[in-house]
Amino acid sequence: MKNGILIRAAGVAALALAAACGGSKSTPTTPTPVAATLTAPKLDSPGAAAQTDTLRPTLTVQNATSDQPSGTRTYEFQVSDTTSFTAATTASTVSGFDAQVGKTAVPEGASGKTSWTPDADLQPTTLFYWRARAVQGTANGPWSETFQFKSKLVGFNRAGELYDPLIHGETVGTVVGSATFIPGKGIQLNSNTAFVKYLLPQTVTSGEFSMDVEGLRANGPGDKAKVFGMQEGQDDFITNRYRVDVQYRGSAGFPPNAITFRALYGSADDLDLRYEPDTATRFASVFALNPANTYNWKATWGSEFRVTVKDGGTNGVTMYNVGVRSSKGVYAPNPMYAYLGTPTGRSGAESASIPGTIYRNVWLSNKPRPDTLGSALR
Description:
Elements (H helix, E strand, L loop, with lengths): L1 H21 L19 E4 L4 E2 L7 E4 L10 E8 L19 E8 L5 E4 L10 E10 L2 E2 L6 E4 L5 E3 L2 E4 L9 E3 L2 E4 L3 E4 L5 E6 L6 E8 L11 E7 L11 E5 L10 E6 L9 E2 L3 H5 L11 E7 L2 E8 L5 E9 L10 E5 L17 E8 L13
């Protein structure tokens, strides 16, 4: 009897243990996903330093590889005017154009290559940098190497903004007289009666007019020879009430080889509205310019009229920097014309354009030139 009781007790204990250990099913664990290790895509096109013919170039990479065959891969593209890609270097922007663009989640192409085209126009005539990387799940692959391309060489003339590259055989202005487009250099004025004329769609009462110039030489022809200018309408340039002329005086100048300027803010006769350096400043501004060098010439106007000249282009060394406070009057020509060189006025051709000068990278606007606009020309 005692043995029977023991057997029954053991059976009950065994049933209890079974209930405790296996009465409910266990949940299987899911393996932790392994993050993919990706290679950098290889840049395909545009090639290094390529000159494109569009403001929305298609960028193509050779697809990256992954150690995890399953999982969707996408790509991130970045385009910028700076190698840091964090922000555009352009302090001033051109309306309707971008100096920095990018795109994430671009689907991987099935052909072994992936392409993306920007959704907005890039800033023209600019050296851009671009790169790409692959993304799979939570894993970001390494960035590709960085390539460069040059955006389309194109000019425009619209309210408040004018830009003219001039090195690609065309201009947004009007050529008057004998001039020649020199590939990769710009437009050359062949005589002192030649000039390029721009009719602005809107008056710029304060702003900047700047350009790169080659071909200027010491002891050139003329007296009050003009590098560039502005005026109202199309009457005689010299007597125009809104005449602006920026000079590099010729061998007959007083003194020869002087850089100087004159700006009229509404009257050709009222000396209170005439702004120019004094005689001592003019005599201290004599320079023997080299025709092989590129000089960036810039005039700014508003409450002060100032001219700067840099040897070596926009990023060159400042050699001339003279301003005159223009506290009376407003520079308000209507219609407003601007010139490379200048028309011949009553002073004659000796006080007009300078033969042999070559112009490119022209900017005229109510805001400063964007820092990288024209970088494709350097």
